[in-house]
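Researcher: Batch entry, complex prediction.
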Amino acid sequence: MKMTLFAASVCALVAGMASAQTDITVGLQLEPPNLDPTGGASQAIDSVLYSNVFEGLTRFQGDGSVVPGLAESWDISEDGTVYTFHLHDGVVFHDGTSMDAEDVKFSLDRARAEDSTNAQKGLFAGITDVTVVDPLTVKVTLDGPNGSFLFNMAWGDAVIVAPESIETIASNPVGTGAFVFTDWVQGDRLELTRNDSYWGTKAALEKATFRFISDPTAAFAAVMAEDVDVFSGFPAPENLPQFEADPRFQVLVGNTEGETILSTNNKMPPFDNVLVREAVAHAIDRQSVIDGAMYGLGTPIGTHFAPHNPDYVDLLANSQYDPEKSKALLAQAGLADGFTTTLKLPPPSYARRGGEIIASQLRAVGIDAQITNLEWAQWIEEVFKAKDFGLSIVSHTEPMDIGVYANPDYYFQYDNPEFQALMEELNTTTEPAARSALFAKAQTILSEDYVNGYLFELAIATIAKAGVQGLWANQPTAAIDLTAVSWAE
Amino acid sequence: MHPKPAGLGTRLPKILSNAPKGHLYAVYTRNSPMIRYTCGRLSSLIISLIVASLVIFLVIEVIPGDPASFMLGINARADTLAALRTEMGLDQPMYIRYFHWVAGMLQWEFGTSWTYKTPVSELINDRIWVSLPLAIYALILSTLIAFPSGIYAASRRGRAGDVTVIGATQLGVALPNFWFAMILVLIFAIKLRWFSAGGFAGWDNPLLAIKSLTLPAIALALPQAAILARVMRSSLLDMLGEDFIRTARAKGLTRRQALWRHAVRNALIPVLTIIGLQFSFLLAGGIIIEQVFFLPGLGRLIFQSISARDLIVVESVVMLLVFTVIVVNFAVDLAYAAVDPRLRSRT
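Model: Structure tokens for the complex:
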């Protein structure tokens, strides 16, 4: 292994002299805890491995659209419950075993099994049966039509893995992608090399190194010293103007699927009163939160939906910044003197910085939000599970996650039968125009019920050296897809 | 743990200088008090380790936050969480988990990290080759800086040179090491481009490895050197007031000759005590420096494991560090006893 790596780097060096650079070093903040995208919620696993090492039946593109992946095509039965996937021929895993229908069956059955530790097990909930028709055809039966099934299969949690390599997947991931995993020095870096027997278009890069730099100051230094060629999800937005002014670098600002919301405990008085929730919505000046906490990066939202999605409805007018109206609503709710509540903040800077600003805006209308800073593990325990909170600030980064509002046990405890019925209907609707109408209705209900304070859509900044091309600016899913990345000559 | 009597370090030189020449030999011929003393120390070492293991285990177990929920995130279903908890052994009662942990450690088996899914011993093994060389490197640097400046200051007591050293060390003690670290990065990595801003090159190429540890070692060493230089200076000044120095001066040595021939060697003992303490600090305490230079060391491992609630890693690494400190203290206690008979008779 060491020898081949050495040989590869010598080749890279020689090649580098002749033509454009063929290796890249990518910095990112979070290190994957392990390398099994089907066994953990950490986004960092997908950031490094999605599309590069692992592929699913379908896949996300940089613009968020879903295209065929390992399945080159599919047929959907008349009633929308049976999907027959036709797999690409000649796909092999990095260990040389072939990828066929048995592997697809294995992967889907493993994800939905009783002892599955898949963090998004819900994606597979509707599957009742997976049948191998022939080595290149697999039939998936659902318990009812599901309009987002192909979308679900594009997630990092639904990638195709092989039974031969599953035991060691957490430390030695074996996929079908355009890059082969070669080395991981825990706490420092992870290395991929080009898969020269890749079934699709081969990658332009021969080698990719991911480095994990959690401290924002260190991230800044690493980019400035050109230790890294790309920093994905640059953590210090205040430094962006400096990079923009420097001809050595390019700054890509893209959108994510992260709806950043002032989560509100709908069962805890006084937030069980819609007037109070509306008062909170009018007390918040979204743009000043974006400017103050994110240095201007982010798009204001008025409901729980990504603004770049074609089905997005602009409902900002419902939550217009209007402190006087806010005070009037509080008075109407019998809280003219205001009230005291908790604001529990997880570690990301959008929450910590945003929390300070929102607390001061709430104080202006008489709401005393007392800030507690929590670590993620504590946040999950106290806020998410025990629901012991009044307000919190979280970015919900899963794509198309409006469905969580149909779960009355979800931590903000919104219980609206009308909305739940709407989601049922959406799940069984596959016709695009009808789905759009249902999405619009769902967004409107959430906005008018002021379930949470809708703040902004999280943006992501990537800093790259000027010659790097083909990077995703947007993050439709957590991924640093390097398959189309190259250096300009 | 046995806190050493506070005055021990500074008292030792006098004892040493007054001790008859044949004294060290006597320790080994009349060895029964030494054995009794060693057994006493050994049993308290074992008790310390047991107490430490209990405290570490309990403190870490009561930190709020469920490791399984952290790993699976907020969309995890209850059955998935239960499956993972069983896999991690979290469904067993606490005392059983404690005994498993202790029994494992006695066989040098630290278990498997929950998040990394690799054996903890492997994780420690990888990280120690960053933290240990870094600590040694920083210690060498700080000694190289501290000794000359401490001796220089003491030899020029009250004069401009002394005042300069005192001023510089005061600054060195007051300024935090991460600030030094950032300044070093700004100058040597971003402006001059002599070093990379961080990261560890690996020991495949020892020169590159040492190069990547240089800035962090300097940042760690400067504040330590400041402390050490002050101790060196004051310990030397203490020595210079001693009878044996006066005798040396009376025999015709100049102040400087007496300092170099007699005072420096004796003044080293409290300094070595401080170096011993600093080493334990440098080994585990470089967390912030490891963050600033994104080095994959033990400190960063502990930090990452705490926020990921990878309890098994935190418990084992902390226990290992405590073990190191307790054993080093034990060795120091024995060494002191070897040279000071009064310590032996006290137990």
